[in-house]
Amino acid sequence: MTILTENGANSVVRDVTRKRAIPESVFAWLLVAPAMLFIGVIVAWPLAETIRLSFMEAGLGGEEYVGLANYEDLAGSRKFHQTIVRTFYWMFLSVALKLVLGLIGAVLLNAAVPGRGLFRVLVMPPWVIPIAIGCIGWLWLYNGYFGLLSGVAQTVGITDGPFEFLAYKSSAFYSAVVTDVWVGTPMITLFFLAAMQGVNRDLYEAAWVDGAGRFYRFRRITIPQIMPVIVSMSLLSAIFTFNSFEIIWILTEGGPRGATTTLIVDTYKTAIGNYKFGEGSARAVIIVLLLGLFSLAYLFFLNKINKKYGVK
Fold first, then answer.
1. How far does the chain reach from its first CA to its final CA, in angstroms?
2. pLDDT tens profile 204-221
3. Do residues 254 and 269 make contact, with C-beta atoms less than 8 angstroms apart?
4. Could you tell me the pTM of the whole model?
5. Which residues of 256-277 are buried (b: 16+ CB within 10 A; e: fewer)?
6. 71-309 is classed in which CATH architecture?
7. Domain ranges of the chain
């Protein structure tokens, strides 16, 4: 008869537990498996299917392999080249305005003024309300006959009669930019505000003791300290704006005469509107490549800017 001491029993339990334990490598793969499955189903598989369709002449009638024909057509299309230029111009203009207005708004909301809590709440509606509802409101504002903007322009003598902002190429494009800036600025403002509130107040006090003015403190303390947030929000806003669809589609549907047609709108019209799934997939692949190249170039130059400001 074998009698186990307390130490012996603990040793046996540890041995059994060690034998039944899952290896660390297997356990690690089990932890990341749900995320990998999600990425595979939601991202990888649709992307692979899009790449496959880009080599097809695909429509409601079926599919036919055409190789690089879809890409060759786009490479030789002057209209598509103009769409690419228009999309980047739309993105840079809109993002630049969002960053400037967001920075100004954050500075004002960070100031010690009465009722600043109320002002911080009032800045959120453009970001909180559904984009479709906001765009319908802007449609009313841009209307030439009963819109507020046209009425004000007539009252002050800027125009002699009703002016349809969305009926002309230039005015429609910049009207869409204004609406996109209205939607996206509150988010950037709140992120900048949160970053400013995290700056060490001792830095401002030391600079104030040394006689530094407000603009100098803002340029040499605030901007370098919040530079990581500026970098992140610039890149995120650029990607969101590049892929913005709802605003343009609700306001103009890409018109008039293609003045507000960006790559994402052009892709939708081709693939969904005209049922040319192969050509639309080729456009989607090009969008992914352009965004990837832009992101790499953007991060490269901003990394140099961060080094200049001493941000790690």
1. 68
2. 888 888 887 888 888 888
3. yes
4. 0.83
5. bebbbbbbbbbbbbbbeeeebb
6. Orthogonal Bundle (1.10)
7. 71-309
